[in-house]
């Protein structure tokens, strides 16, 4: 079994905590990033499920089309009158075209629904991230004010 590179053993959160940057809540940043990764994971899952639904529906429509084509071909073979056959073919072509337009509309609606769900999820998380950042900035701005009142021992006034 191959050994993982040392990079994978590196704990970024511990490294960031050891840096001790004043006014920066590293726990909040790490938690926010975890939520971002979780939102992206959920968005990918939604996108995959949406694509799966579209592909399943396309397969179902293809199966229906093949069945209809087989029935049509069988019924066309029984026709003796060329004018009746021509009228029937024209009617079938019109019906097939209308069905194709309807199917395309259905597919685009399915894809749009899936895309909207993914967009709404990511948009919600983006808004939450902005609010989290705003809160962190407000905390960081408030921290120096409380710390400025206290002067270190031994400092000149």
From TrEMBL:
> Region entry Disordered: which residue ranges?
136-157
* Compositionally biased tracts (Low complexity): 143-157
| Pfam families in alphabetical order | Phasin_2
Q: Which residue intervals define the domain Phasin in the entry?
A: 29-126
Name under which the protein is recorded = Phasin family protein
């Amino acid at each position: 079994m191959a050994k993982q590179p040392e990079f994978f053993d590196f704990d970024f959160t511990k490294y960031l905590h050891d840096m001790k940057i004043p006014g920066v809540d590293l726990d909040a940043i790490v938690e926010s990033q975890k939520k971002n990764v979780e939102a992206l994971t959920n968005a990918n899952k939604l996108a995959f499920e949406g694509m799966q639904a579209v592909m399943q529906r396309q397969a179902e429509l293809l199966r229906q089309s093949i069945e209809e084509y087989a029935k049509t071909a069988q019924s066309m073979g029984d026709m003796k009158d060329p004018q009746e056959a021509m009228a029937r073919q024209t009617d079938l072509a019109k019906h097939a075209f209308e069905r194709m337009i309807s199917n395309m509309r259905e597919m685009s609606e399915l894809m749009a629904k899936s895309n909207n769900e993914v967009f709404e999820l990511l948009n919600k998380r983006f808004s939450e991230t902005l609010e989290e950042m705003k809160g962190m900035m407000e905390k960081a701005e408030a921290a120096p004010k409380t710390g400025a009142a206290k002067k270190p021992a031994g400092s000149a006034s």
